[in-house]
Amino acid sequence: MKYIKVLFSNGEIYHIQASIVAHERATYYADHDIGKQVGEPTKEWMDCYKKEREYTLSDDFEIIDWANNNMDWGDVEEHAILIDSEFTPVNKQHEWVNNEPEKEIVEA
Questions:
Q1: pLDDT tens string 6-28
Q2: Are 12 and 90 contacting, i.e. CB atoms less than 8 angstroms apart?
Q3: For residues 68 and 82, what is the distance between their CA atoms, to the nearest angstrom?
Q4: How far apart are CA 15 and CA 34, in angstroms?
Q5: CB contact at 8 A, 6 and 14
Q6: What is the 3-state secondary structure of 2-38?
Q7: Rounded to whole angstroms, how far apart are CA atoms 6 and 34?
Q8: Would the pTM of this model clear 0.85, i.e. be above it?
């Protein structure tokens, strides 16, 4: 499984499933290209969603770029798995939106 490894300035390291970011991006493009769906999505919407999700998961740069430019820490916080920490307080939202935490794609 592919994860975004996030290192905050206080030494906290988190893993976030790349599929969380891929889902957000794919939903955005399916809504944009096909139209927002009410109730059960159409086959056309689902096809667009699947194509965009697969594309995102295949491109490490796209995953990090979408997370940096289109998501907030609050969008991923509940999915973040703490890997290591020095337990020093840090404003994660501030660092996230300013692209300050180091991010890289890892397989786990």
A1: 998 888 899 999 999 999 999 99
A2: yes
A3: 19
A4: 32
A5: yes
A6: EEEEEECCCCCEEEEEHHHHHHHHHHHHHHHHCCCCC
A7: 33
A8: no
Token pair in block for residue 78: 């509940």
Coil/strand/helix, residue 63: helix
102-107 vs 81-84, strand pairing mode? unpaired
Rounded mean pLDDT, 32-56 = 95
Express each pLDDT in 67-93 by its tens digit.
999 999 999 999 999 987 766 777 888
Are 4 and 56 spatial neighbours (Cβ–Cβ below 8 Å)?
Answer: no
| Residue 108 amino acid letter | A
Tokens of 64: 């990090």
